[in-house]
């Protein structure tokens, strides 16, 4: 999946807002909304730099970018909410559940078994409601 | 690039030895050799589990696996020698320099600018001699 | 705010107890109480070394010390309960909500956006009941 | 306590399964079960490498191995569920509650007071039901 | 010291360039130069986001911002080059050597004695040439 | 090995000084000396809290304490100088080289292969000169 919503003519904020919507979906919008009453400027930075600047760069497709992010957040092991958002984002940009599971399992090599286990259990939570949704529930 | 050197009929050790050679090249063999007089069994585990087991799994190609590893080691920021080995490994399995640079830059978002800067300077070191070699020096 | 409750003539334990009360308030006393049945000696060390020794040193005022602590705990990202205690402590020693929010936002640069986001959401929790209290609720 | 359940003639998986049962008890089996629907191969790796390979090595007894694991997980501070499993495992292989408390307290020196505090509160949770059980409740 | 070089009418890049010069001095320019042949866009982001956006925000003076950064980089313990740059930056924006030493010592409480020791030895290196220069050597 | 040099009648500083000498030997004294011109009070804290307080506690022998410290510093992976001091300390309090190697290898499970590899190479450096000394060189 390419960064189709990234238009160099748009402002960074506008570009970031569309990239966030494409990648993180509703979960990203919830984060932005949650910042409104404590640090609205931080929501702007979040849209502008990670999404408007980095994710919109053409040199790497979104699939590769989400592989990198899921790997890093699993390895760091101290950002469970963001890992879940990006596991969902991985599905949004075309990674399969099995591919996401492979990425997380591989982190046992680089960050230890506990980091990988906690990553897998995060994935299980993210995958679960979707399974329900897919089955019509 | 697929895991062409991974044969389910081989022992994990044999499979791992070939996967290590394919992915990490000479740098991987140096690590194994350096372990010989202090912890030879650990060299065996390194060949068997990360390379014989994980990298040989069919669900994710080596390009994707190296994206994940470069991202994680950049983000963790405490394993410079291994990061350099895997930046070289990334080139071995088909990532371009620009793609590797993109992955590392993206880590500024998830692990901060210092982690990304140190990753970029590691990449610069890895890329340098190769540039020299390519120019015939 | 200076370390007015630190008296060199007092024992480290006594000095630490008063410094803890001044800085962390009720939250600090709860931590000490929670240690009573598992590791009472650790409560003593906690009062003596961080509070009796370090926070009572004259070379840096409590405002600066809490800036440092809030920054470090946000960046480490693996000690949410202690971060909340020190966000409240920051308010106790004279930092404003906006200043605390600035410190945490800045950590996006050094530890990544997830660490800053989780720090901001911790601040939101700490600020919330106080808002309620201030409004008379 | 020695690794009495480790038999070199068994497969790594079989050896690991018995070592896991001996060390982690029911908690270990729950982890394996929880992986069944998301990453069953990872359960196999977990049994084979950490338990079948590492914990079954003769050079260090299980008591020493659990001291090392409890220390590391307390210091890392980002794997609370696994720390709790290994605090229980420490009791299983003969560490006393006081010894486990000493190990965790010592981590204040190497990873800071928050890491040690969170480790002590994890221990308190693990010790609690057992106290209840011991008293016949 | 206030952010006197931050002018809202300038571009983020221009503002960031001046803020970097004011805060990090020559060391900051060296980092930017070192990025020129590997990731020039990252130099732009570094000037724009941390310096043009964050350090130029009016809600916290540069002295407080450097306290936060020195604390965080000491605690993280995996970014020695950046810690040294910011110890020098601390001196540039008005922190005394003794204040910087206090901040780093305090990190023993939150990230352990090794992190504080390595921070103090980094400070010793930064302070050393300046001492020499001041004495006319 | 028990804490034979710890006498409750001595001051914490005196007790710590003797414990440091017993455990870390010359390397510990070098650290204290290196702090003299930058943060002499921190040398006092280092002697008093980790050594005078923690290592002198009777509930865990020095062998067990060094297992915990070597494990934690290997897993954290960001304090190579201190890890080397404590690998030497492990030998001082009666751990064998093989036992130290086992502890470090085990950390591959909890903190990943790079952390374990870097720990093993640190051990190799510490073991090397001693080997030379033992052979009369």
UniProtKB/TrEMBL annotation, chains A, B, C, D, E, F:
It comes from the Bacteria. Gene3D superfamilies: AhpD-like. Residues 40-125 form the Carboxymuconolactone decarboxylase-like domain. This is Carboxymuconolactone decarboxylase family protein. The lineage of its organism: Bacteria, Pseudomonadati, Pseudomonadota, Alphaproteobacteria, Hyphomicrobiales.
């Amino acid at each position: 999946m390419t960064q189709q919503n990234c238009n160099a003519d748009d402002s960074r904020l506008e570009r970031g807002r569309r990239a966030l919507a494409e990648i993180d979906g509703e979960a990203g919008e919830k984060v932005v909304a949650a910042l409104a009453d404590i640090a609205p400027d931080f929501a702007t930075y979040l849209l502008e730099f990670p999404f408007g600047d980095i994710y919109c760069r053409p040199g790497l497709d979104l699939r590769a970018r989400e592989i990198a992010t899921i790997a890093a957040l699993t390895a760091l092991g101290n950002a469970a909410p963001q890992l879940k958002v990006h596991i969902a984002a991985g599905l949004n940009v075309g990674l399969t559940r099995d591919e996401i599971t492979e990425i997380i399992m591989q982190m046992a090599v680089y960050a230890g078994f506990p980091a990988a286990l906690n990553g897998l259990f995060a994935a299980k939570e993210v995958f679960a409601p979707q399974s329900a949704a897919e089955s019509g529930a």
